[in-house]
Amino acid sequence: MPNALPHLHRIGVLPADIDFMGHVNNARYLNWVQEAVLAHWNKLAPPETAAKYLWVALKHEITYRKPAFLEDDVIATVVLEKVQGARSFYDTVIKRGEEVLAEVKSSWCCIDAKTLRPARIAAEIQEYFFPKD
């Protein structure tokens, strides 16, 4: 979908993120993606809408490019690529400066917070993420 609004999400690398090899454990990147995607939703969706829905990850495809280390200044750039019914497809790029550390394609299911059943994202809500010119 054109004109998707990206979300920049600053990531703090913590000592607990570091593995036996001295860099951020690969599994931690998935936590970062989850934090970044949810922050994107909560930033752009109206508060009353954000409170009505929860998100469940369905799939992550991650390509690791370079390791991250303690003290690194890391930013995740999140872009919602498209919405199909209750599913949303995200592209997240995790960088240290201009260096790409990881690229993640993920799909998520929107669920109603009360019923815990899949919920479609209404067109008027999608417009917050894909504004028209």
TrEMBL record:
InterPro entries: 4-hydroxybenzoyl-CoA_TE (IPR050563), HotDog_dom_sf (IPR029069)
Coiled coil: none
Superkingdom field: Bacteria
A GO MF term: fatty acyl-CoA hydrolase activity
Keyword Hydrolase: yes
Entry keyword set: Hydrolase
PANTHER family assigned to the protein according to its UniProt record, in alphabetical order: 4-HYDROXYBENZOYL-COA THIOESTERASE FAMILY MEMBER, NOVEL THIOESTERASE SUPERFAMILY DOMAIN AND SAPOSIN A-TYPE DOMAIN CONTAINING PROTEIN (0610012H03RIK)
Family indicated by similarity: Belongs to the 4-hydroxybenzoyl-CoA thioesterase family.
Protein name: Acyl-CoA thioesterase
Taxon lineage: Bacteria, Pseudomonadati, Pseudomonadota, Alphaproteobacteria, Sphingomonadales
